[in-house]
Write a structure and sequence with these properties.
It is a single chain. This protein has about 625 residues and is an alpha/beta fold. It contains 29 helices and eight strands. The strands form two sheets. It has a five-stranded mixed beta sheet, sandwiched between helices. Helix 12 packs antiparallel against helix 17, helix 15 crosses helix 17 and helix 21 packs across helix 27. It is found in: Nucleus.
């Protein structure tokens, strides 16, 4: 605690003590003028009878001698002169009137015997099983039965089959509530999807929904964890995806879909686009987004390939230390010797570049301890890392640091990510170009240059595949707007191209203040609409121009709060922002659902039917939203 905090704390404590002392003196004076048997008048004044006062006070252990009592709410000490409790009642009335009512409620709850309701118990039991991913058979275990009967001997016990049937019923009833919630969304919905294979080799299609609610809060929700049968072709994925959306009546609200870079996802999007056209539902297949985190992973893996020999020495050292409890103990002792945080080394996973970054970062923190551990152990002397190799690891870490920060930032689901995609692509590309153009010997040497070149080439490849929605989202983010393109010297031709792409979508799909229907027939202009089309387009351009005349918002601005405040002034832009700023730039939300599947389906619990898995995982997610 700093000096200011201490001063404030002491001042408050002093102030509180003075108030208590003054009140005590005042009440002592009043007590001397109050007759002991005049309880009726004091009860009328305070609203409390004598016995009720003791609900809020505790008598001193020597109460018979000193007549002292302590307030249970604020620890103030009073003396009950001549046996009167009037000062206690006045204290409660003056200082704790609201707490008094609350305490009365608590007292009533504990004093009043609650009738046992077996249905309430069962509902809570189902939630406990789902949320903590317990086996259904837990209700048949003898110890569990004893526990329930000890709490309530009259409790009606249920079987594992009853639990399963009830959970399936809960899935249906909660699905109706989720469907109603999603149908009330004022704008479009974007999705992430991915496929997970369980230890029992069942494949599941994971689908998450991302949208902005009527209060301008970005929401994300697991809408399905459905078993997919047969080959994972684009057509099969499309059929499973469409069925899941139709199950919730949201198949007409699709704006964007974010997936990993697997080739079957391209055929999935094409098949979905064809299905949408056949069913007269508007869907732009260009709103397919390649997971930005996957792009970074591919780009950095390209960089790490030429660096394998530079990393192999460190990797071998860590593997040998981790596989020996004695060596781990020695490393821990050496950490203390060098006054280093006692941390365990991290072994990377080849398919996850960020784990390689974590391995290097941790090793650099343990540099002295790792070096001494290797040098002092004859079995590790072949793994001793030289000073040159440590310097190379420092350079590799420095190069990868921005990629790590970008991955962490773009993997979030509580804030807009698509609007930063163009900006971050350019930051990463510039980062690689600066390394390539550097004349510093440590950076320009061949070992790192080849890695950076490969990384830069892959980044540019995927950057050129970004779609117009990324440009649009950037403009709709008040932290960027058109200013981002103008101030970063994109050139007049590119700036005009970006503006025209934005206005093309804006004028055709957001020409009204309310979100447009997904049915193309509803987009056809009536005679009156055609008459006023020119004026409407002019108004839209004016709204767009006025928005861009505003200063760029600070970096810590919440874009959704901005549009909540400015919705009435820029209604068309706000509708557009509601849709485009909700699109996720990565498929991480789907991947995060894999962990739920791993906890539910294990090596010892692998016979759950696909429908049961679907219900359990969906309910756990839905209850977080519905509650």
């Amino acid at each position: 605690m700093n000096n200011v905090s201490i001063l404030i704390s002491q001042t408050l404590n002093t102030s509180n003590n003075m108030d208590i002392e003054e009140e005590h003196e005042e009440n002592e004076k009043e007590n001397s003028e109050t007759e002991v048997d005049d309880t009726s008048s004091s009860q009328k004044k305070s609203g409390l009878v004598a016995s009720e006062a003791w609900k809020y006070f505790t008598k001193d252990v020597n109460f018979k001698e000193n007549k002292k009592a302590t307030c249970n709410l604020c620890s103030a000490i009073y003396v009950c002169s001549a046996g009167s409790t009037s000062n206690l009642k006045k204290h409660i009335k003056k200082k704790h009137s609201e707490k008094e009512q609350h305490q009365e409620l608590i007292t009533n709850i504990f004093n009043k015997e609650q009738p046992y309701d077996n249905n309430v118990m069962k509902n809570n039991l189902y939630k406990w099983i789902i949320n903590n991913q317990h086996s259904f058979t837990v209700v048949e275990e003898p110890e569990f039965i004893i526990l329930i009967q000890s709490l309530c001997p009259t409790a009606e016990l249920i079987s594992a089959d009853t639990v399963k049937r009830s959970i399936m019923d809960l899935y249906i009833s909660n699905k109706d509530q989720i469907q109603e919630l999603l149908m009330e969304i004022p704008g479009k919905i974007s999705f992430t999807t991915d496929i997970w294979t369980s230890p029992s080799t069942k494949a599941f299609l994971v689908i998450t929904a991302h949208y902005v609610d009527k209060n301008w809060k970005l929401q994300n929700l697991l809408i399905d964890f459905v078993q997919i049968f047969g080959q994972h072709t684009g057509e099969n994925i499309k059929n499973t995806f469409v069925s899941a959306l139709q199950n919730l009546s949201i198949h007409t609200k699709v704006l964007g879909i974010t997936t990993d870079n697997a080739s079957n996802n391209l055929t999935f999007i094409n098949a979905l686009s064809d299905w949408m056209k056949e069913n007269d539902i508007f869907f732009d297949k260009n709103n397919h987004f390649r997971c930005f985190a996957h792009v970074i992973n591919i780009s950095v893996q390209n960089a790490l390939n030429p660096l394998k020999s530079n990393l192999s020495q460190l990797r071998q050292l860590i593997i040998k230390i981790q596989h020996s409890p004695q060596r781990l103990e020695k490393l821990s002792a050496n950490c203390r010797l060098y006054n280093i945080d006692d941390l365990k080394p991290i072994q990377d996973i080849p398919t996850r570049w960020n784990s390689t970054y974590d391995m290097i970062e941790r090793a650099l923190k343990l540099k002295e301890a790792l070096t001494f551990t290797a040098a002092s152990n004859k079995d590790l002397k072949d793994c001793v890392i030289t000073d040159d190799n440590w310097n190379q690891l420092e350079l590799i870490k420095g190069f990868l640091e921005l990629f790590k920060e970008t991955t962490v930032m773009m993997s979030g689901s509580k804030y807009s990510t698509l609007s930063a995609t163009i900006f971050l692509y350019n930051e990463l590309i510039t980062h690689t170009e600066e390394y390539l153009e550097s004349e510093e010997p440590a950076i320009s040497n061949d070992f790192l240059k080849k890695a950076v070149e490969d990384c830069n080439r892959k980044l540019l490849e995927y950057y050129n595949k970004t779609n117009n929605a990324c440009l649009i989202a950037t403009i709709l983010d008040p932290r960027f707007k058109m200013s981002y393109y103008e101030q970063n010297e994109w050139g007049n031709e590119l700036i005009n191209d970006v503006r025209n792409k934005f206005l093309d979508v804006y004028n055709n799909l957001y020409s009204f203040s309310k979100p447009q229907s997904s049915n193309p027939d509803d987009h056809k202009n009536s005679l009156s609409q055609r008459l006023f089309k020119r004026q409407r387009v002019n108004n839209e351009i004016d709204e767009f121009q006025l928005y861009n005349l505003l200063p760029v918002s600070p970096p810590d601005t919440d874009p959704f709060e901005f549009w909540k405040i400015n919705e009435s002034q820029y209604p068309r832009l706000a509708n557009m922002a509601r849709d485009y700023l909700a699109i996720p730039s990565t498929s991480v939300p789907s991947e995060q659902c894999f962990s739920a599947g791993k906890h539910l389906i294990t090596d010892t619990r692998n016979r759950l039917a696909g429908k049961t898995v679907r219900a359990c995982i969906a309910l756990k997610s839905w209850w977080q939203v519905l509650n």
